[in-house]
Predict the structure.
Amino acid sequence: MKIQIMTAVMAASLVSFAAQAETATDNLVVSANVIESCVVSAEPLRFVDVNPLDTAPAVAQADITVTCTDGTDYTIGLNEGAGDGGTTSERQLTTGAGEDATTLAYALYSNPGRDINWGNDEDEDTVGDDGDGGEQVHTVYGEITGSLASAVAGNYQDTVQITVTY
């Protein structure tokens, strides 16, 4: 009987402790704001060993890679380049600087047929796409449009800025 009484007293004390415990609750709100974002990279476009006596046009191509947040609409524009007197429809490759510089006209296109200019006017001659979160490759097609017959031998260069608007 003594064991039963002690067991009853212990059970009662446990119940009284449980009855005294109280709780309070609330909710933790967790959120994240995913922003639209894009990154761009490009490989060099190289007109390799252009022969001025060749009657075929000198052509080359390179890839521009854009990665944008899923669902982000974007356009890719190419400016006129750093070549003196270049425009977005006729850019200038240049050798040297100043009075010793010689130029060679070239154009950049958004299609393999090389008849759709790739410029920097968002409403007219840029390339658009819809980001999917992965890398999207856009090929730029180049053609030397100036007369090669009078081209001076040398290394020609230009730098064209790529602008991704989103």
Notes: The mean pLDDT is 89. The chain has one domain: 38-165.
